[in-house]
Amino acid sequence: MTEILASWYPWLLGLHIIAVIAWMAGMLYLPRLFVYHAGTMPGSESSELFKIMERRLLKAIINPAMIAALILGILLLWSKDWAQLREGWMHGKLLALFFMFGVHGVLSGHTRRFAEDQRAKTARYYRVLNEIPTVLMIAIVLLVVVGTRL
Asked: If we measure between CA atoms, which residue out of 89, 75, 74 comes closest to residue 8?
């Protein structure tokens, strides 16, 4: 099976990168929607529109892209006989990825709370939250690009 996966490695890698781009696009956009949603009145037309946008972004783009990125990442590791799991850069990447999954969960929770018209956080909180996926993404990309060249 490993030989078959290895022959598909370029395709798996390309699809993995596409899934990661889609996941990150959503992870960067959703908190921005929260910034604007936080300034609306519960039950208002704009608040209801934000609820729809947030739910669709999470359910139709962010969640499927995360799942695809995860499955494709596992297949990429499998195609290399899991050898990369012994490399230091991969440990750093997996740690950053662990935190990215945590941020994903936090964003999912905020989407649910907004859907229930709960407004416990300020727009400033969501602006700061918006930076966390960016920092994690930068760390992951640099770990992969630089780490695999050492």
From this structure: 75
